[in-house]
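hey team, just a heads up i'm posting the complex here instead of the shared drive bc the drive is being weird again. everything in one block, sequence lines first with there labels, then the predicted structure for the whole assembly after. its two chains so it's a bit long, scroll down
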Amino acid sequence: NAGVTQTPKFRVLKTGQSMTLLCAQDMNHEYMYWYRQDPGMGLRLIHYSVGEGTTAKGEVPDGYNVSRLKKQNFLLGLESAAPSQTSVYFCASRPHPGQGSAKNIQYFGAGTRLSVL
Amino acid sequence: AQKVTQAQTEISVVEKEDVTLDCVYETRDTTYYLFWYKQPPSGELVFLIRRNSFDEQNEISGRYSWNFQKSTSSFNFTITASQVVDSAVYFCALSEDGGSNYKLTFGKGTLLTVNP
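-- predicted structure starts here --
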């Protein structure tokens, strides 16, 4: 039972490079989220999706784009990486409120540690 | 806007001591959910508990207990007889029901170190 899988686990980028972080969930969840975690800041929401084909901005969306072409996947893109985007990125998913017994709980991936030099 | 405050940045205790992690929240919604997550040194986020705003019963699970008080907007977490394996960052989080996106707002976390 894989749950939420994030790829890659680690990455080092140079300023200006682009990359895509992949999040895949096998729980048939409707909602998916991308957070970033910085020292002393807790987790902050970047973007989220309430269903296939839909995305919306969170608290800190600048410099990121997302896509949800398939229900099970949620991609986070950095078009031109900056040192300020050095962080640990977490993906999470949760079921629709009417779906399943574990509603209202977000399940997290293991995180992606990104360094931008 | 919703907000979660964990005033304790770091706590250090000796094994077998009891320790309480504080969490204070702000929300305008009448229906909301409160959570605690644990982040051990390995980095993953582990769900511990969820509480909804209509259920103020305290809960005990083994050495863990949670005290939810709406009157003071607090959802505190106590570990009894702490162990070295309890060393982790603990996050309190809030999810409002009225926004329809169910996003989590996290506190900044409390780093708990349990020394042998």
